[in-house]
Specification:
Blueprint: H1 2-10, H2 17-34, H3 45-65, E1 74-78, H4 86-92, E2 97-102, H5 105-118, E3 123-127, H6 130-133, E4 143-148, H7 154-161, E5 165-175, H8 179-185, H9 187-192, E6 195-202, E7 205-206, E8 209-210, E9 213-219, H10 231-236
Helix pairs in contact: 1-3, 2-5, 3-4
Length: 239
């Protein structure tokens, strides 16, 4: 785990001993639960540290650059899966009130144990589909930040995520090498949802090769009531 300390420091995220212990416990729980059902295809410790933990901490780097007040942030991780990037962000910035949203009950069970074992105060799980939760009065436009590393094109991901974000807040989408193309293709729907793409920032860099990016979307106005649509319509790509 010494590798995580070094890699986090490279992107300006300093981790305490207690935070490192939490990451160690998280890693062990991930590997333990992964034996029961598929949480991740990445099981090598070095790969977990770089491809899951450090990559997720790139979100904290972007938040720091934007000088966000962590003590006044409510964040939702949409389609969180095994907790990426939400759990690493919460460990590194414990002041952030965090909601982990996923539609798979077994993953919520795993995340609930992680929260309990790591004693992550101000973190909770919601078992729901994003397109349904985004219409709930206590969740719609309730969050300062939405994050997602879900495997879906940005135009689809934006419709799942932006309805949760307050006007003035941000949506951070962790994407792969095709981030710019996806951002270009998602321009119209992002605007329709009340967002504006501010930029595409390099995420975690290891060995000098940029593999991941964070698409930064600012919420500039309320999302129209017509969004989010039913999942089948979102997936069809109708605008």
């Amino acid at each position: 785990m010494e590798l995580l300390l070094k890699e986090a420091a490279k992107i300006g995220v300093e981790l305490t001993g207690d935070q490192m212990r939490k990451f160690e416990t998280y890693k062990n729980l991930l590997l333990e639960w992964n034996k029961k059902f598929n949480l991740t295809a990445i099981t090598d410790e070095k790969d977990i540290i770089i491809k899951h933990f450090a990559d997720s901490l790139s979100v904290v780097k972007i938040m720091n650059e934007k000088k966000l007040d962590f003590g006044n942030i409510k964040m939702i991780d949409v389609g969180t899966g095994a907790g990426f990037p939400g759990i690493p962000v919460k460990i590194a910035a414990p002041e952030i009130e965090t909601v982990l949203l996923d539609a798979t009950k077994k993953k919520i069970g795993f995340l609930s144990e992680v929260i309990e074992r790591l004693e992550l105060a101000g973190a909770s799980c919601v078992h729901a589909r994003a397109e349904e939760a985004g219409r709930l009065p206590d969740m719609r436009e309730h969050f300062d930040i939405a994050v997602s590393r879900a495997v879906a094109p940005l135009d689809i991901l934006a419709e799942y995520c932006l309805p949760f974000v307050k006007t003035g807040g941000f949506f951070f989408a962790l994407k792969g090498p095709e981030a710019k193309r996806e951002a270009d293709e998602a321009g119209k729907i992002v605007k329709n949802l009340g967002g504006e793409t501010e930029g595409i920032e390099p995420a975690f860099i290891s060995g000098g090769e940029i593999k991941h990016y964070i698409v930064v979307v600012k919420k500039t106005k309320k999302t129209p009531e017509t969004y989010p649509r039913e999942n089948k319509k979102i997936r069809r790509g109708a605008r």
